[in-house]
Automatic annotation (TrEMBL):
<keyword id="KW-0833">Ubl conjugation pathway</keyword>
<protein>
    <recommendedName>
        <fullName>SUMO-activating enzyme subunit 1</fullName>
    </recommendedName>
</protein>
<dbReference type="InterPro" id="IPR035985">
    <property type="entry name" value="Ubiquitin-activating_enz"/>
</dbReference>
<dbReference type="GO" id="GO:0005737">
    <property type="term" value="C:cytoplasm"/>
</dbReference>
<dbReference type="GO" id="GO:0019948">
    <property type="term" value="F:SUMO activating enzyme activity"/>
</dbReference>
<comment type="similarity">
    <text>Belongs to the ubiquitin-activating E1 family.</text>
</comment>
<comment type="pathway">
    <text>Protein modification; protein sumoylation.</text>
</comment>
<dbReference type="InterPro" id="IPR000011">
    <property type="entry name" value="UBQ/SUMO-activ_enz_E1-like"/>
</dbReference>
<keyword id="KW-0539">Nucleus</keyword>
<dbReference type="InterPro" id="IPR045886">
    <property type="entry name" value="ThiF/MoeB/HesA"/>
</dbReference>
<dbReference type="GO" id="GO:0016925">
    <property type="term" value="P:protein sumoylation"/>
</dbReference>
<comment type="subunit">
    <text>Heterodimer of SAE1 and UBA2/SAE2. The heterodimer corresponds to the two domains that are encoded on a single polypeptide chain in ubiquitin-activating enzyme E1. Interacts with UBE2I.</text>
</comment>
<dbReference type="GO" id="GO:0031510">
    <property type="term" value="C:SUMO activating enzyme complex"/>
</dbReference>
<feature type="domain" description="THIF-type NAD/FAD binding fold">
    <location>
        <begin position="18"/>
        <end position="323"/>
    </location>
</feature>
<dbReference type="InterPro" id="IPR000594">
    <property type="entry name" value="ThiF_NAD_FAD-bd"/>
</dbReference>
<dbReference type="Pfam" id="PF00899">
    <property type="entry name" value="ThiF"/>
</dbReference>
Length: 333
């Protein structure tokens, strides 16, 4: 059965504010969304884009978690933070403008370090979305979420590329399905009228099963059948962050450390020169248009997961700047 334990009645003001969503998704889906508590880890431009969309959708609460301070690089894409707040904590600096988007959503900031949070910390949320984390951090947070039945999302934007990963464990949702129905139209007062076939929309319960984040790392090449170039870049950038603690800066373009991580993946997957252009391209900082695209996908999936309406993406989305297209890969099964 779908979980209704946290649903609540919408006030008249809420019903008016979210009228379009109610028409699209129905009352029960909106109530589930309205009850959801979301944790966003990492308030770069990508995180800001996600926050904007889910706050406007009308979740119950959004918590920003980030121990880092605002830098000049954030001015490329982090629209919540005024330029005079450079040097301040990212989560706290993002709070005022984010809260102004929708006063009916409780937005809060936590300037603590993710590594200092116990596993139980994640259990107070319905959805956890982790950005700008190392592989070790992502594995640990994902495990903690699985143990406490919390839906887990991860993603990043590096320059012009990005990815979204989703682990909803076992997820039930409603899908609108068109079906044909035979109806009888009365004619001229006759008891038996003319028969007609109409298309009606029926909501059906469905279930999807997901795998944890660690299952999609370093998958066999045979699992990657098409347009998988961004997957390799994702591995390179995550391996770099795991080893060096952060992403390369624009001033470190073409640095030996990044070349070494790229060479290891190229050799492992026998890529030759297949991804050379991407490795030598713009993988630095976060560009606002890419944050908008990839962040929009992430926010849409969070909203779908919270409302339990429509089929979720399962399980990896990557954005390729060369083709300007997104690709869905189902890995780790």
């Amino acid at each position: 059965m779908l979980d209704h334990k946290q649903t609540e009645e919408l006030t008249d003001h809420e019903a008016e504010l979210y009228d379009r969503q109610l028409r699209l998704w129905g009352l029960e889906s909106q109530k589930r969304l309205r009850a959801s508590k979301v944790l966003l880890i990492g308030l770069d431009g990508f995180g800001a884009e996600i926050a904007k969309n889910i706050i406007l959708s009308g979740v119950n609460s959004v918590t920003f978690l980030d121990h880092r301070n605002v830098t000049e690089l954030d001015r490329c894409s982090q629209f919540f933070i005024p330029k005079e707040d450079i040097g301040k904590n990212k989560a706290e600096a993002s709070l005022p403008r984010a809260q102004n988007l929708n006063p009916m959503v409780n937005v809060s900031a936590d300037s603590g370090n993710i590594d200092d949070k116990p596993d139980e910390y994640f259990g107070q949320f319905d959805i956890v979305c982790a950005m700008h984390c190392t592989i070790t951090q992502l594995k640990r947070i994902n495990r903690a979420c699985r143990n406490q039945k919390v839906k887990f999302f991860a993603g990043d934007v590096w320059g012009t590329i990005g990815y979204v990963f989703i682990d909803l464990q076992e997820h039930e949702y409603l899908e609108d399905v068109p079906k044909l129905k035979r109806v009888t139209i009365p004619e001229g007062g006759e008891p038996m009228g003319k028969e007609k076939i109409e298309t009606i929309i029926v909501s059906e319960k469905r279930t999807e099963t997901f795998v944890p984040f660690e299952f999609i790392l370093n998958v066999p090449k045979t699992s990657l059948k098409r347009q998988e170039e961004i997957y390799y870049i994702m591995l390179i950038m995550l391996n770099y962050r795991e080893k060096y603690g952060d992403d390369p800066l624009p001033s470190e373009r073409g640095c030996e450390n990044l070349k070494n991580e790229a060479s290891a993946i190229i050799k492992k997957y026998e890529l030759d020169d297949k991804i050379d252009d991407l490795v030598e391209g713009d993988l630095y900082a976060q560009l606002s248009p890419v944050c908008s695209i990839v962040g929009g996908v992430m926010a849409q999936e969070i909203i779908k997961a919270a409302s339990q309406k429509h089929a979720p993406l399962n399980n990896l989305f990557t954005f390729n700047p060369v083709t300007s297209c997104g690709v869905i890969l189902k890995l780790g099964y």
